[in-house]
Amino acid sequence: SGKSSAGNIILGQNVFNTSIRTAQSEARQQEVFGRQITVVDTPGWWWFFPRENTPKLDQIEIQSSVHLCPPGPNVFLLVIPVGLNFSTLTIPSLKKHLELFNTDVFSHTIVLFTVVAPVSDKRIESNIKANATLKWILHQCGDRKHVLNISNRDDRDQVKLLIEKMETVVGQNRGRPFSVDVSHENALREEIKLLEERASQRKDKAQKQRQKLRALIEGRKKKLFFIFHSIISTLFAAIVVNEIYISSSI
Ligand SMILES: Nc1nc2c(ncn2[C@@H]2O[C@H](COP(=O)(O)OP(=O)(O)O)[C@@H](O)[C@H]2O)c(=O)[nH]1
Ligand SMILES: [Mg+2]
Known about the structure:
Bound molecules: guanosine-5'-diphosphate, magnesium ion
Structural class: alpha/beta
CATH superfamily of the largest domain: P-loop containing nucleotide triphosphate hydrolases
Number of helices: 7
Order of helices and strands: HEEHEHEHHEHH
């Protein structure tokens, strides 16, 4: 939906990979318009599926991303591509995913609309008006929003404006970053390690099963060849016997 692309545009550098799915949260720092900015890129989730459909590892990566920018993030950017179709599951799913953090996420959030072609403010506004889900999300975020054209990397004004909006959020929260439970960090790291170990064990098991299956198929092929071969030899013998019989009867 443009999360990694947005991170690259904000930092003015290609630091986040946009050709593969973001599996791990990553932090990158850069001076932007005189401010030291840390952007943390995270995996995402599907707007029309419940949280149970988001892989556990992605959930933990999203959850642990706040520890990558101590003392805590000042602003969350909720990335929504313009024109995205929502479903009745969107709001419950968003709420459930945000439960991965503390409750005051919305007070630090700006909705970041991503577009790949220039779009007028009027179109954005009419989009919002026509969409109750979008209206609800924006309302939760204090109607803070910004439109970012992710295919126009040269437009630095759109980034400057976004950073100004971020500074307003910092002011509104009296400079207090989103509160992060530091003691939680190690527990999350352990959980990630455990899940990765389990995934690797599952991979080993699947590989062994594949090898076993391949050996079984190879064995069957050999057996089939042997049966086929014996049928041919029997037929051949029958013909020979028949010929002998015919010749002896003449
Ligand atoms: N057409 C279109 N392409 C998009 C949009 N958002 C992202 N992309 C493209 O999809 C690819 C993956 O984008 P990325 O920023 O990695 O998405 P992420 O998965 O949210 O991090 C990139 O080539 C983007 O240019 C969108 O709203 N419309
Ligand atoms: Mg990504």
